[in-house]
Amino acid sequence: MNIIETQDIAKRYVMGSEVIEALKSITIAVKKGEYVAFMGPSGSGKSTLMNIVGCLDTPTSGRYVLNGQDVSNMSENELAEVRNKEIGFVFQTFNLLPRQTSLENVALPLIYAGFNKADRTEKAMLALKNVGLDNRAGHRPNELSGGQRQRVAVARALVNDPSILLADEPTGNLDTKTSYEIMDLFDQIHSKGNTVIMVTHEEDIAEYAHRIIRLRDGLIETDRANENIRKARSLMQGVGEQ
Ligand SMILES: Nc1ncnc2c1ncn2[C@@H]1O[C@H](COP(=O)(O)OP(=O)(O)OP(=O)(O)O)[C@@H](O)[C@H]1O
Ligand SMILES: [Mg+2]
């Protein structure tokens, strides 16, 4: 079953007399449980497409069906509801609240979902444990390393048990070793049956994905299976992370 289906999606921005076609015509289908990387030069439309797929934005024209539901013309409120239920989002800059602890940051989406405090704490602790950070629950973002911050962001993205994890340049602010640790975590998330889509500039990061879609000037340039899947360390050696 296709969890994501876009049909001839376009996104146009009008800036004074200029019209910017960020996306011209994008048709893709992603099955449940796939692991996809969006690549392409700067300005090719990767973030625009991710934001539409993640229901943070709507296309100017075309159709987007998410998990069997047409979301192309939904209102802000309806989109927010779909987003809460279906999507976990991870950003390059982590986007954690600086004054809140790891536990509080991870628990935040559960407030909107209507869980009581005890349930929020329990679920958030479990999500932190799943990213190997239950021993950092009381730390604030500035008391964590970059990789740990991103793992807290991943825990927050997954705490509501969404069907899809979306990540826009998740390793863009991380060094190579830490980037691979985050990819290791993505592999674990994918191997549990989740659908994962990430945007990356880096070929070695894209190689973790099982399918690579390259964009250029708002169009799909290529869309192929990755013949050379890079395996995460922990899956190869059976070694967990600290
Ligand atoms: N809100 C906006 N208003 C006007 N133009 C925009 C807006 N957002 C994006 N664009 C334009 O749309 C095009 C695609 O932008 P997008 O951010 O999707 O690129 P990208 O592939 O993610 O690039 P990068 O690799 O640099 O992040 C660019 O030309 C950009 O300037
Ligand atoms: Mg971008």
| Largest β sheet strand count, sense and barrel closure | 6 strands, mixed
Structural class: alpha/beta
Helix content: 25-40%
The CATH topology assignment is Rossmann fold
Strand content is 25-35%
Ions, cofactors, ligands: which are bound?
adenosine-5'-triphosphate, magnesium ion
Please tell me what the overall shape is. Answer: globular
CATH C-level category: Alpha Beta
Unreliable sequence segments: 238-242
Overall number of domains: 1
Helix run count: 8
Number of E-type strands:
10
Distance between the termini: 36 Å
At CATH level 2, the architecture is: 3-Layer(aba) Sandwich
Instruction: Give the rounded overall mean pLDDT.
Output: 93
> How large is the radius of gyration?
18 Å
Structural commentary:
Residues 4-242 form the ABC transporter domain. GO terms for molecular function: ATP binding; ATP hydrolysis activity; transmembrane transporter activity. Belongs to the ABC transporter superfamily. Macrolide exporter (TC 3.A.1.122) family. The protein has 8 helices and 10 strands. It is globular, with a radius of gyration of 18 Å. The protein has a single domain (2-239), classed as Rossmann fold (3-Layer(aba) Sandwich). By secondary structure, the chain is of the alpha/beta class. Helix 3 runs parallel beside helix 5. The strands form 2 sheets. A 6-stranded mixed β-sheet has the order 6-7-8-3-9-10, sandwiched between helices. Strands 2-1-4-5 form a 4-stranded antiparallel β-sheet, covered by helices on one side. Residues 238-242 have low confidence and may be disordered.
